Amino acid sequence: MFNNYPATYLFILSLLFLMSLTFFTPLVEEWHILIAILLESLIFVLKIICIFFLFSTIIELINNIHFRKRHH
Question: Is the dihedral of CA 36, 39, 43, 18 positive or negative?
Fold first, then answer.
């Protein structure tokens, strides 16, 4: 399904990983504060990666739309 859209596939994967970490972090905060701090920094890095893949997906979609218009 995503063979023509690799950036979209990577965006969805990173978004799922980010959502799972976001839901998992409050549970870990109760056990150990250092691990919670590490998870918060990992969440920040994942947000940056998700934004990058989102921009890549938008560029990829715009490129494919223009490519289809040229063939018709």
Answer: negative
pTM for the complete prediction? 0.71
Q: Are 56 and 7 in contact (CB under 8 A)?
A: yes
Eight-class DSSP state of 22 = H
* Tens-digit pLDDT string for the chain (72 aa): 556 667 778 888 888 888 888 888 888 777 888 888 888 888 898 899 889 888 988 988 888 887 776 665
Q: Give the CA dihedral 17, 23, 27, 28, nearest 10 degrees.
A: 30
Residue 28 CB: number of other CB atoms within 10 A? 16
Residue 61, CA distances (Å) to 17, 23, 69, 71 in order: 23, 30, 13, 16
Question: What residue ranges do the domains of the chain occupy?
Answer: 6-71
